[in-house]
Each structure stands twice: as structure tokens, then as C-alpha cells.
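Task: complex structure prediction.
Instruction: return C-alpha cells for all chains below.
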Amino acid sequence: MFRILYLSTANQPFSTNDLAKLLRAARSKNTAVHVTGMLVYSDGDFLQILEGEYQSVTGIYDRIISDPRHGDVSVLQRGLGYGDRLFPNWSMGFKRVPDQTLVDEAVGVNSRVKLRYLDAMSALDFLLACSRSQT
Ligand SMILES: Cc1cc2nc3c(=O)[nH]c(=O)nc-3n(C[C@H](O)[C@H](O)[C@H](O)COP(=O)(O)O)c2cc1C
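Output:
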């Protein structure tokens, strides 16, 4: 299972409608190549994990990073992971986290940390917690 975990910053404000449109496109493309994952949007930053076959994940990721709607991308983790998918049920799960309130005691992440300040391990834990509580 190949995974890429990255952070980026939106180059424009994303409305609920913009996010819904983005997700619709992402889910249909990801489903076609069996890529799963989770996307979180908070205070103008994105945190996303993509998992699947190497070719599929890197193909999708290359398209994502050339998307002008965001930039300042930092890769937190990239490589082969052991075992099965961490997000098997989501072609792309999504959660919008209210600005400046990354409150999730289950994760132990400081309640007022910005996505940008999470290290790879905390970011992954945070995405897992979000995937369990999303709709
Ligand atoms: C933060 C962010 C996350 C995205 N995630 C995905 C994704 O998981 N899968 C995907 O196909 N496109 C994703 N996109 C959208 C792609 O960048 C691109 O717009 C979309 O795949 C349509 O590509 P096309 O116009 O070449 O058909 C994402 C875009 C942004 C800004």
C-alpha cells in the first residue's frame, strides 16, 4: 500500500459549495483507480492522505499538486506502508474543521494547533479521528 500525506494552503477562499464540487470530482476520479483517503480543510489549509497502488496514487497526486487553487505543499509522509488501507471506506473522506479549533481529545493534539504545525504522526492520527467522526 503506497501512501502520500501532505499539507497545502488554499490560494483562494473555499466556500462549502467549492469544497463540495472539489470532492465530487475527487471521489469519482479516485474511485476509478481505487485510491482512498481523507481530506481535511481548516482555516485555509488542507491536509490530505492518498493511499492505493503506487502508479494510481502518484498519478492523482501529480494532478493535485498542479492545481492552482492551492500551493505551498509540504509532504509529511510518502512511501510504502505496511498492511491494509487505513481509509478503506472512503474514495475521499472529508471533514471541514472550524477555524482555529482542531479540538480532538482522542488524538491528544493541542486544541488550538493549526494543521500546519502537525507532525506526520499527529497528522495521521488526526485524519483517522476525523474519518471516524465525519458524515
Ligand atoms: C486540496 C485538493 C485536494 C484534491 N484532491 C483530489 C483527489 O483526491 N483526487 C482527484 O482526482 N482530484 C483531487 N483534487 C482536484 C484535482 O486537483 C483536479 O482538479 C481534479 O482531479 C480534476 O482534474 P482535471 O481537471 O484534470 O480533470 C484536489 C484538489 C485540491 C485543491
